[in-house]
């Protein structure tokens, strides 16, 4: 986790166009790298912030961009009495995204998983204002938003209604009833399971003449679905999908999607064209373009500074001993290095360098700065970014709120690692993600759960645990009651098959 100076001038000027008031702007973004950045900006006219100035307000202005998991978690945990908070987002609600697959099939209603952001900020102490607007420098990434889930739901019903028309032959009906999910990750698997349950439990009663023509296909480029889970869960999910009649195509890469067919290539370069009625693309989300360009801009500038600090004799090279002297600080500043050492069961940098170089090294071996960069770059290439999940984003938002709540205290008593440039310590400790477990609903009231401590559970009991966790994680009692009532309604009356 890394803090960096960054400012959206357009938003700042729009909110306080003629003001000389210093502002603090926060960007909260969910991306592949889970980057969260903040900046204490200059005034609109470029004047530096002077803390002793008599014109400085009692509270600094804080602008939060976005009302997703990270932004909402940040707001809920922030001490609103410390800042003049303004929230800017193109949508005026928070959506509980893990239940979006349930929305696509009518298991849960869309309004049950959204909470108006004004209700959330109304509970905060201090003044918090909301602006339904979009920062012009943010390029939103296409994700499975609430509106997309509703469109998928309408598309499913439309495909069923088209296939039910009397003038279609059986081949045309099969085409309309071919549902393809691209991506075998948690979202794709959960949607396939929800869709299967909907089609088998509800559609058969409403459309009895076409129920035997429905086909669900999951396309995954890798060797297994749910590859990020324990192998026991992966194996169970694949076997269950096979029993349920869900066709799982492993090792297939989608090369083209036309308005009639989806084109795939397997590992033997065999091309397959599959006619479809609906395709859902569920292969994850990417980094926002503005964040990606920002990350490219800042680069890895600290590596040179670390090298200079470690090179105590100014020889231009580092011995392994000199590197080991700063290894503790490197691990504190960059937790991924420590994770890599632990995952490879390495006790020192000698083993790390051996792994990076591929040959033996002795302790008196000296490394140039390029070799040092290569070793750290190898770590970066081996350690994956944090997953772009709600759990990660919520923890990042909570962490950032804690930093802002302790801003004044940490300015006087920094708690972070030693600074490579300059003296003293950084104000805050780096962000560290704590994995609390993962769920993968597999349909038929069965869920796979993987919790810390190598605790694996698959079956109906895990489904009830999933119900409990997802209900408890709702942001308000209103949404909690609505989601639970939707689940009960589905058990009693079945899923809603209308396209509204």
Automatic annotation (TrEMBL):
Q: Which key words tag this protein in UniProt?
A: Calcium, FAD, Flavoprotein, Membrane, Mitochondrion, Mitochondrion inner membrane, NAD, Oxidoreductase, Transit peptide
Metal-binding among keywords: no
In the UniProt record, the signal sequence range is none
Residues in a coiled coil are none
Q: Provide the E.C. number(s) assigned to this enzyme.
A: 1.6.5.9
Q: Write out the catalysed reaction.
A: a ubiquinone + NADH + H(+) = a ubiquinol + NAD(+); a quinone + NADH + H(+) = a quinol + NAD(+)
Xref: PANTHER family: EXTERNAL NADH-UBIQUINONE OXIDOREDUCTASE 1, MITOCHONDRIAL-RELATED, NADH DEHYDROGENASE
Give the similarity note: Belongs to the NADH dehydrogenase family.
Please identify the protein, giving its name as recorded.
NADH:ubiquinone reductase (non-electrogenic)
């Amino acid at each position: 986790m890394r803090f960096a100076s960054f400012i959206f001038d357009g938003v700042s000027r729009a909110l306080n166009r003629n003001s000389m008031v210093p502002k603090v702007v926060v960007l909260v973004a969910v991306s592949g790298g889970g980057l969260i950045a903040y900046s204490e900006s200059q005034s609109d006219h470029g004047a530096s912030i002077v803390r002793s100035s008599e014109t400085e307000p009692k509270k600094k202005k804080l602008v939060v961009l976005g009302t997703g998991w990270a932004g909402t978690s940040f707001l809920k945990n922030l001490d609103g009495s410390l800042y003049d908070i303004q929230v800017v987002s193109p949508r005026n609600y928070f959506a509980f995204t893990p239940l979006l697959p349930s929305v696509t099939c009518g298991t849960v209603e869309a309004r049950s998983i959204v909470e108006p952001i004004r209700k959330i900020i109304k509970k905060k102490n201090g003044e918090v204002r909301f602006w339904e607007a979009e920062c012009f420098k943010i390029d939103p990434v296409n994700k499975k938003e609430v509106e997309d889930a509703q469109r998928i739901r309408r598309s499913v019903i439309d495909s069923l209604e088209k296939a039910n028309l009397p003038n279609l032959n059986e081949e045309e009906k099969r085409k309309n009833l071919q549902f393809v999910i691209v991506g075998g990750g948690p979202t794709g698997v959960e949607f396939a399971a929800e869709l299967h349950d909907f089609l088998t439990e509800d559609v058969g009663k409403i459309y009895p003449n076409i129920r035997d023509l429905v086909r669900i296909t999951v396309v995954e480029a890798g060797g297994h679905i749910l590859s990020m889970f324990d192998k026991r869960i992966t194996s169970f999910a694949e076997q269950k999908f096979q029993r349920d009649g869900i066709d799982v195509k492993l090792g297939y890469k989608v090369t083209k999607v036309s308005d009639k067919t989806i084109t795939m290539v397997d590992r033997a370069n065999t091309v397959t064209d599959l006619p479809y009625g609906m395709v859902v693309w569920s292969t994850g989300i990417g980094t926002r373009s503005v964040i990606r360009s920002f990350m490219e801009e800042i680069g890895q500038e600290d590596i040179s500074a670390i090298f200079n600090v470690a090179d105590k004799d100014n020889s231009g090279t580092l011995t392994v001993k000199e590197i080991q002297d700063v290894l503790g600080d490197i691990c504190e500043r960059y937790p991924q290095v420590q994770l890599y050492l632990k995952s490879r069961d390495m006790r020192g940098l000698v083993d790390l360098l051996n792994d990076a170089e591929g040959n033996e090294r002795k302790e008196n071996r000296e490394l140039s700065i390029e070799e040092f960069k290569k070793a750290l770059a190898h770590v970066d290439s081996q350690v994956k970014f944090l997953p772009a999940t709600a759990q990660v984003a919520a923890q990042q938002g909570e962490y950032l709120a804690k930093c802002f709540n302790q801003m004044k205290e940490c300015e006087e008593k920094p708690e972070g690692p030693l600074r490579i440039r300059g003296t003293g310590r950084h104000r805050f400790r780096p962000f560290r993600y704590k994995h609390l477990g993962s769920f993968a609903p597999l349909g038929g009231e069965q869920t796979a759960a993987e919790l810390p401590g190598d605790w694996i559970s698959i079956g109906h009991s895990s489904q009830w645990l999933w119900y409990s966790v997802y209900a408890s994680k709702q942001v308000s009692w209103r949404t909690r009651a609505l989601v639970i009532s939707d689940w009960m309604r589905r058990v009693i009356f079945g899923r809603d098959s209308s396209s509204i």
